[in-house]
Specification:
82 residues, alpha+beta, three-stranded antiparallel beta sheet, 3 helices
Length: 82
């Protein structure tokens, strides 16, 4: 169920349907360069409203969720300097 701004309780988190590049970067954690690269490759969907570029936040977050999990290896223990 999507919550609109008029239905939201005070203090409830609302995710906008469309947002600016800066809003997308804040919500996703992606940088501007990576955002424009993803737009150029067609991974993110955007519309132009006048001079503003607005990203479809819902579709962008779905794309981000579909990315493969990071493969992080634990660091090897350091040898003691003794």
């Amino acid at each position: 169920m999507n919550t609109t701004i008029s239905q939201a309780r005070p203090g409830a988190a609302v995710t906008p349907r469309f947002g600016s590049i800066d809003t997308w970067c804040l919500l996703s954690g992606m940088g501007r360069r990576a955002t424009y690269d993803a737009l150029g490759h067609g991974h993110l969907k955007a519309v132009k409203v006048g001079t503003r570029t607005l990203i479809n936040i819902e579709k962008g977050l779905a794309w981000l969720e579909a990315q493969p999990a990071a493969q992080i290896r634990p660091q090897k223990p350091r040898k003691s300097a003794a």
